[in-house]
Specification:
Layout (H helix, E strand, L loop, with lengths): L9 H12 L2 H13 L3 H29 L5 H5 L7 H33 L6 H9 L2 H20 L1 H28 L4 H9 L3 H22 L6 H6 L8 H29 L11 H11 L4 H35 L3 H21 L1 H31 L1 H8 L9 H37 L1
Bound molecules: tryptophan (TRP).
């Protein structure tokens, strides 16, 4: 296994992990799920969940990945617990599931890059979105997005993933800051800001049973946790990194991008009198398209913005695909290119329902964040906390500076608080999906 690939540098790893984390989850999903869950209250719960639950869970994945230096399934075998390899199997399945609709949304973004250049959505942004979100064209752009993803993964860890993300992370920060500054100064922006930033405790009291699982699910989705991405990425890592510091940086950068996206989306929605709760999965597309249509250099700004979102989406999509490809390459010694293409074809087929129905896409998304990711994370955390235990602490302490002393506290946090929270939100999340399903039955 000496030929296994590694990151060229520590920065390369951090940027690839940030590249995986920062994506449609921050720019598309976060504003729309925030709007569906009452605004500012959701933001608060999300931030607490990212730091208190997400970060410890991320370190749990890092510990397994770096110790084992294997793909998500064989990693557990390598460290002496082969049965826990089911976590990896679940991770592979979740990767297929998420990528199938993620790529449809990625296809919308490609479409919007072109439509910005031509002014295609300038007439009626809302109707434009409804027209392109599902149907034959959405299927075509879904295929195109997947094709790009397959291409980058086929190039490998260093030339593909690492290089692509080095450009993306700085670019998205710069563009979002610029747009946020502009959005905040629009007339009507104040209402959007208070909706996004001042929590209303009554909203929480009434709806905590949907808000909390949605917020924890969003934290896991956004940080790429719960399906082994971070196990896989840490498996390409050297021994001397301070994993706690890396993890903290990833959480801070990722949250910053989510907040920036909200600072762009909500002032724009309010300044155009769009009721945020009604915006749905098209929130960011409709609001930004409307804004760009009324800007002097709107076409240029639109191309730049959606271009950057596209790169962010690709750098996340490649991590979803990489989990599967890494397994096939390790285990069966098949070529990267062939595996990536084969998986791409399967994912394309699985995405067809989402590419032809917006409701299906939304349901796939909800099941991923409410069920699959909490389930995967629960299993990883239970394993690392109660089975692997001290060995995980030892692994994290390798290369850790002063923070190494926090190891035992981290272990108990994982064993009790993180695990109990995940089990709780998994139950709430399943209940939520069953309720949605019952609604559909009733309507149908
Ligand atoms: N975190 C990415 C985003 O926010 C999506 C993503 C990539 C992901 N890999 C993942 C989500 C693994 C869950 C699990 O866009």
């Amino acid at each position: 296994m000496d030929t296994r690939e590694t990151w060229a540098s520590r920065l390369g790893f951090i940027l690839a992990a940030v590249g995986s984390a920062v994506g449609l989850g921050n720019v598309w999903r976060f504003p729309y799920v925030t709007a569906a869950n009452g605004g500012a209250v959701f933001l608060v719960v999300y931030l607490i969940a990212a730091v208190a639950i997400g970060l410890p869970a991320m370190l749990a994945e890092f510990a397994v990945g770096r110790r084992a230096r294997r793909n998500v399934i064989d990693a557990f075998d390598e460290i002496g617990y082969p049965t826990w390899g089911v976590i990896g199997l679940l991770g592979l399945a979740t990767g297929f599931w998420i990528l199938s609709y993620y790529s449809v949304v990625g296809g919308w973004v490609i479409r919007y890059v072109f439509a910005s250049a031509t002014g295609g959505y300038f007439g009626d942004p809302n109707a434009y979105f409804q027209g392109i979100a599902a149907g034959p064209a959405a299927v075509g752009f879904h295929a195109l997005f997947l094709g790009l993803t397959v291409g980058i993964v086929a190039l490998g860890v260093e030339d593909g993933i690492e290089l692509a993300t080095k450009v993306m992370v700085p670019a998205i920060l710069v563009v979002l800051v610029g747009l946020a500054v502009w959005g905040v100064t629009l007339s009507g922006a104040g209402d959007g800001l208070s909706y996004f930033l001042s929590p209303d405790i009554d909203v929480f009291a009434n709806d905590y049973a949907t808000i909390v699982p949605a917020a924890v699910g969003q934290a896991f989705f956004s940080l790429s946790l719960g399906m082994g991405v971070m196990i896989t990425y840490a498996s390409y890592l050297g021994r001397d990194d301070d994993l706690a510091v890396d993890g903290g940086l990833i959480v801070v950068l990722n949250s910053a991008v989510g907040i920036l996206a909200g600072l762009v989306a909500f002032p724009l929605l309010f300044s155009q009198n769009v009721e945020p709760g009604s915006a749905g999965a098209g929130a960011i597309f409709v609001s930004l398209a409307t804004a760009f249509a009324s800007l002097p250099a709107g076409r240029l700004v639109g191309v730049v913005f959606f271009g950057v979102v596209l790169v962010a989406a690709l750098s996340s999509a490649i991590s979803l695909l990489e989990v599967v490809v890494s397994y096939a390459v390790d285990r069966y010694a098949v070529g990267r290119l062939r595996t990536a293409v084969a998986v791409g074809v399967l994912v394309f087929a699985l995405g067809l329902p989402s590419a032809t129905s917006l409701e299906t896409l939304t349901l796939f998304d909800r099941v991923a964040s409410n069920v699959w990711l909490p389930l995967g994370a629960t299993l990883v955390v239970a394993f690392v906390g109660w089975v692997y235990g001290q060995a995980a602490v030892d692994e994290l302490q390798q290369g850790a500076g002063r923070l190494g002393g926090l190891g035992p506290a981290w272990l108990w946090l994982v064993r009790v608080v993180v695990l109990a929270t995940l089990v709780g939100i998994l139950l709430l999340g399943v209940a939520d999906i069953l309720a949605v399903y019952a609604d559909i039955e009733l309507l149908g």
